[in-house]
Amino acid sequence: MGKTYSDYSEQELIIRCRKDDAKAQEMLYKRFYAYAMAIGVRYCINRDDALEAVNDAFVKLFKTIKTFEDTKLIKPWFRQIVVNSAIDNRRKNLKHTLVADIEQTDEPVADAQIISKINAQDILDILKDLPEMYRVVFNLYEIDGYTHEEIADILEMPSSTSRVYLSRAKDRMRKLVKAHFYLNYERAI
């Protein structure tokens, strides 16, 4: 019995996708769907928007896969496509999103014991509570490693604005951590 598509390596699937093999495209889609959605939901308002961005990213992937360099890893290349697709899909709304100023306070950062109890899912939940522009800039800078200059190019804004949004996102996250976890911590004591 011969190899099934699920037995192929990523490289073998890429080679077959370059030949417009629909079954290989389906298998590559299945392999990278969860990875792509995890990226998409960080940049989009809801799952439907993320799904749209992910599907757009796959269309772009299959259109450009012939230009993919074999010496590179496909996941980082595809991640870039997903991020760009999510941002492209949100760009119009991002430009029109009004961001309320956060009043500056001298409140101390939450207690170290509280911070030590926060897990990755808690942080993702807090990110969902940020205004959209704050969340996008935070994701691009802190999670995906873009520079402020790159973010400025992607979002068509001055790099100083990117820095302001990142600072405000961090301030808002501190407040949200304190609001969500400090109260629960106090009740538990």
Automatic annotation (TrEMBL):
Signal peptide residues are none
Which superkingdom? Bacteria
One Gene Ontology molecular-function label: DNA binding
- Swiss-Prot/TrEMBL keywords: Sigma factor, Transcription, Transcription regulation
Report domain RNA polymerase sigma-70 region positions. 28-93
Q: Which InterPro entries match?
A: RNA_pol_sigma-70-like (IPR039425), RNA_pol_sigma-70_dom (IPR014284), RNA_pol_sigma70_r2 (IPR007627), RNA_pol_sigma70_r4_t2 (IPR013249), RNA_pol_sigma_r2 (IPR013325), RNA_pol_sigma_r3/r4-like (IPR013324), WH-like_DNA-bd_sf (IPR036388)
* RNA polymerase sigma factor 70 region 4 type domain span: 121-173
Q: Would you kindly state one Gene Ontology biological process term found in this protein's UniProt entry? A: DNA-templated transcription initiation
Tell me any Pfam family this protein matches.
Sigma70_r2
Q: Which residues cross the membrane?
A: none
Regarding protein family, the annotation reads: Belongs to the sigma-70 factor family. ECF subfamily.
Q: What is this protein called?
A: RNA polymerase subunit sigma-70
